[in-house]
Amino acid sequence: MVQFNQVRFDTSFAALSDATRRGVLERLGRSDASITDLAETFHMTLTGMKKHISVLEQAGLVTTEKIGRVRTCRLGVSRLEQEAEWIERYRQLWDARFDQLDKVVEELKRKEQSDGQ
Q: Which residues, other chains included, contact 22 with Cβ-Cβ below 8 Å and sequence gap of 6+?
């Protein structure tokens, strides 16, 4: 069984819990952007966007580079592979549980139909 780093997961999921940060990741998936451009795109202050970028950087989801007066953001090195694996384990668990529930429901329907005849 794979051991997951709880602190890393907390940081990653906290970063992904905000709609603006998820939007930033989607935007950076298309191309790099300056913090100023991102702030304008998401209709927020430069300070607010810097805070979002900082959270994403701590999670390894975004990197920034300052060239002159412009800080450019790009997708980071974290590919969320372990997080996706963790989610997949629970998706499979729930699929199996729902499959069993479907069987119980079908059995109850058959029993109800046979009792009604």
A: 16
CA dist 9 → 28, 59, 83, 111 (Å): 21, 9, 7, 46
The encoded tokens of residue 78 equal 């974290």
Query: Where are the strands (E) in the chain, listed by range?
Result: 33-34, 62-67, 70-75
Q: Does the model's pTM come out above 0.85?
A: no
Three-state DSSP class for 19?
helix
**5: Cβ contacts below 8 Å, ≥ 6 apart:** 82
Taking each helix axis from N to C terminus, what angle separates 6-16 and 19-30, rounded to the nearest 10 degrees? 90
3-state secondary structure of 96: helix
Render pLDDT for 77-117 as a digit per residue (tens, 0 to 9).
888 898 999 899 999 999 999 999 999 999 999 988 888 76
